[in-house]
Amino acid sequence: MPPPLWWLILALCSALGVITWWSRNFTEKRELTRFSAILGSVLMIALVIWTWSSDWVD
Prior knowledge:
Blueprint: H1 4-26, H2 30-53
């Protein structure tokens, strides 16, 4: 089972996905859209690397 920090990063990544979608479709804040998309992508890459390199995955 993944450690608690992994779940926290996953939740943050999910929230950033929603923020990116919302800011792109309902606001004119391009900086917020870009920031949330880049940060969410970096966190997702970190999760994938962490998951593949862990020993808690069968």
